[in-house]
TrEMBL record:
Annotated ranges, domain D-isomer specific 2-hydroxyacid dehydrogenase catalytic: 6-319
Entries under PANTHER family matching the protein: 2-HYDROXYACID DEHYDROGENASE-RELATED, GLYOXYLATE_HYDROXYPYRUVATE REDUCTASE B
Keyword Oxidoreductase in annotation: yes
CDD domains named in the record: GDH
Signal peptide: none
UniProt protein name: Glyoxylate reductase
GO molecular function: glyoxylate reductase (NADPH) activity; hydroxypyruvate reductase [NAD(P)H] activity; NAD binding
Domain annotation D-isomer specific 2-hydroxyacid dehydrogenase NAD-binding: ranges: 110-288
UniProt record similarity statement: Belongs to the D-isomer specific 2-hydroxyacid dehydrogenase family.
Keyword Lipid biosynthesis annotated: no
Cellular-component GO terms for this entry: cytosol
Amino acid sequence: MKPVIYVTRKIPDHVLKPYEDSFDVRMWDQEEEPVPRDVLLREVKSADGILCLLTEKVDKELLDAAKHLKVVANMAVGYDNIDVEAAREHGVVVTNTPDVLTETTADLAFALLVAAARRIVEATDYIRKGKWEHWSPYLLAGSDIYGKKIGIVGMGRIGEAVARRAKGFGMSILYHNRSRKESAERELGAAYRGFTGLLQEADFVVSLVPLTDETKKMFDQDAFRNMKPSAVFVNVSRGGAVDEQALYDALVNEEIRTAGLDVFDQEPIAPDHPLMKLDSVICLPHIGSASVDTRTRMLELCLDNLKAVLHGEQPITPVR
């Protein structure tokens, strides 16, 4: 009898087909809507494995209900939606999807940086609203990128990928991390700074930190007040790393110039959220890894992890 996995969002048949001999698949039938909690709790009772998204909370309640569960494959690098300690206590392996989304997320981070600096979305809306009637010297003038200083907070795989892109723009690279990354300093010419020192010096500040007790709301009122008035702030990590009211106030009070955000404290963000009302902010719906190739590789890695664990092998990318 094949093991059973439950997939919490509808995914394409062609992705699942190579695994049809490895396990039986049950799946929530909606692509856009998350599986309701009561449905999830009912389905996990007989599941040996779960393929889930960040929208699903894998906590003690769920783990207590899932008596046969052996593995949870999270389709993300982060796993703050999972109580990893509780999973260990239940003997459940947790895996994530590092590496495969590194370059794609770095592309998005740098795209946000460029778009925010050069006011790309605001300029597009300017035309759509019929405002473009004349040309003037400072019409929608933004910030230069070439030769400026980028400050990367969180120099992990994605941070290093962003730094490689910054080198192509002739940028000076500053970084802050829990520990020094001598390889990044040697290979990328990155210079380590304390958190406050980085904020004071950088023209562009990019958040790439995991969400932990240490990083929760680390970008607060003091952080934004330490940035340059011309600073561009980009967040593609976790929304919880930012005090959104403090960011809103900093933008309104012109303590920083602009921001590009792919993540928010509460997702999905409401259309009437205060940040959505500011021309100085670009807001995206958490699409950092959203290329067809990368999302397919993420799903395949989840399925490979499920297959390995459920057939008595070691997981490929376990959460330690």
